[in-house]
């Protein structure tokens, strides 16, 4: 509602500057005034404010000089015009929603939400935990990796992400649903020494990535 009203106010400010410029021809000025009054009446309606009745030129009718019947008929006309505008806006929105639904139905997309609770595996050093989707029949990965860096003390390296390790594998379309099986694979890569039992300080290495373990589901249908 705020964005809609803000947009209308910007339009009114622009149109007001055009009217005050005095450069518009008489016919364009008349049409612009009609646009301004229509926009004001529409804004008052969606904000549940009073409806202002006007004459054909967009001027506010003076109740002291206008009969009750004329005011009533002018009010009916103005109310009908605003109602038609609301129905038009509603119809356009419904058409947009229908088009979006049709487009979505034509190109379906699905997602897999993953929430990593803990890594129950004694690694001994820092590690990288990689999760991805795999097609066992085609022997290939069908998604990018979700990477979590795990410390040697059994917690995420980024401690701020503790209990908030979540990922969404998106854009799984109809082609992926037609696959016979999809496996969820988790790989663990140890980051540190060449050998865990290497205690020789002269040969001590660090930062080496060594495959440590892998796990996966038998297949999701």
Describe what this molecule looks like in 3D.
This protein is an alpha+beta fold. The protein has 2 domains: 1-103, Substrate Binding Domain Of Dnak, Chain:A, Domain 2, CATH 1.20.1270; 110-190, no CATH class. Helix content is 38%, strand content 23%. The chain has 4 helices and 7 strands, in the order αααβββββαββ. Strands 2, 3, 4, 6 and 7 form a 5-stranded antiparallel β-sheet that branches. A two-stranded antiparallel sheet has the order 1-5. A hairpin with a 4-residue loop joins strand 2 and strand 3 (140-141). The longest helix has 39 residues, at 68-106. It is elongated. The two termini are 44 Å apart. 5% of the residues are buried. The mean pLDDT is 82.
Compressed to H and E, one letter per element, the order equals: HHHEEEEEHEE
Quick one: overall form?
elongated
Structural class: alpha+beta
The name of the CATH architecture of the largest domain is Up-down Bundle
Distance between the termini: 44 Å
Q: Per DSSP, what share of the residues sits in E-state strands of 2 or more residues?
A: 15-25%
Question: How many structurally independent domains?
Answer: 2
Helix proportion of residues, in percent?
25-40%
Q: What integer value in Å does the Rg equal?
A: 33 Å
How many beta strands in the DSSP annotation?
A: 7
Would you give the CATH topology of the largest domain?
Answer: Substrate Binding Domain Of Dnak, Chain:A, Domain 2
């Amino acid at each position: 509602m705020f964005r809609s009203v803000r947009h209308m106010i910007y339009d009114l400010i622009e149109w007001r500057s055009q009217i005050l410029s005095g450069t518009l021809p008489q016919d364009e000025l008349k049409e612009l005034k009609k646009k301004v009054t229509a926009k004001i009446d529409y804004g008052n309606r969606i904000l549940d404010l009073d409806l202002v009745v006007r004459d054909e030129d967009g001027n506010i009718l003076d109740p002291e000089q206008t009969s009750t019947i004329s005011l009533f008929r002018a009010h009916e006309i103005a109310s009908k015009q605003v109602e038609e505008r609301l129905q038009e806006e509603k119809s356009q929105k419904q058409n947009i929603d229908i088009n979006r639904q049709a487009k979505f139905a034509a190109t379906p997309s699905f997602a897999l939400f993953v929430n990593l609770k803990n890594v129950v595996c004694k690694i001994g050093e820092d590690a990288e935990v990689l999760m991805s989707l795999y097609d066992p029949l085609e022997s290939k990965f069908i998604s990018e990796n979700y990477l979590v860096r795990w410390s040697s003390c059994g917690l995420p390296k980024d401690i701020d992400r503790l209990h908030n390790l979540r990922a969404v594998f998106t854009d799984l379309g109809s082609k992926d649903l037609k696959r016979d099986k999809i496996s969820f694979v988790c790989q663990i890569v140890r980051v540190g020494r060449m050998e865990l039992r290497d205690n020789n300080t002269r040969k001590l290495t660090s930062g080496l990535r060594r495959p440590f373990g892998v796990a996966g589901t038998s297949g999701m249908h």
